[in-house]
Amino acid sequence: MKALNGITLALLIVGGLNWGLVGVFNFDLVASIFWAGSTLSRIVYTLVGLSAVLQAIALAADRR
Hints:
It is a single chain. With 64 residues, this protein is mainly α. The chain has one domain. Helices cover 86% and strands 0% of the residues. α1 (2-25) crosses α3 (39-63). The two termini are 18 Å apart.
């Protein structure tokens, strides 16, 4: 579980930095690396979203 937590945290950091680049410079790093709309970019976005869900569940569990 500790490894999964580390992986999801890293993906959330990458996702957050990517959104920061989009907001400030209108530059999507993931799309530029994997081509916008490609299967790989969709996988990365999906993994970042799932990471957010898992981290939210972990946070809720820690608060109990």
